[in-house]
Amino acid sequence: MTRKSGGVALVTAIFLLVVLAGLAVAVVSLTTSQQSAATQDEQGARAYQAARAGIEWALYVSLRTGGGLANNPLGCPATHTMAMPAQTLSSFTVTVTCGQRAAGYGTGVPANDPTARSILVRSVACNQPDPVTGVCPNTTAPGPDYVQRRIDAQL
Fold first, then answer.
1. Most-buried pick from 8, 12, 17, 106 (CB within 10 A)?
2. By three-state DSSP, how is residue 46 classified?
3. What is the model's pTM?
């Protein structure tokens, strides 16, 4: 080996180390973002299940109480907020709202409105309830990991 070509091996080795380090950083970054996306997706599915539990709770209350209130024929409270039991949904708070739609909601003409006086049950589940009111949705200051799902049922 001549003296002029002696440094080529060192330069090549340093270049390969830099390329491998860059690939390692890219793999770590991709893995971290994939893990975060998977966690958010799982939290979204849990929030949906919590919101669904809120709808089922409203229907249970209606069956248990028999409904029949003039301003709320379903019989569930106008607004009710509850924490989920201490299992997989324990990090969620659910706010259930029951009410009757006003005439004219569906068509704009109250006399011809097929949805007049229909019952609307809205269930909103979130993992960070509003710090002021304690209800979902959080309109004040949701954090970066905030997850919310809303289900509406019209009866």
1. 106
2. helix
3. 0.71
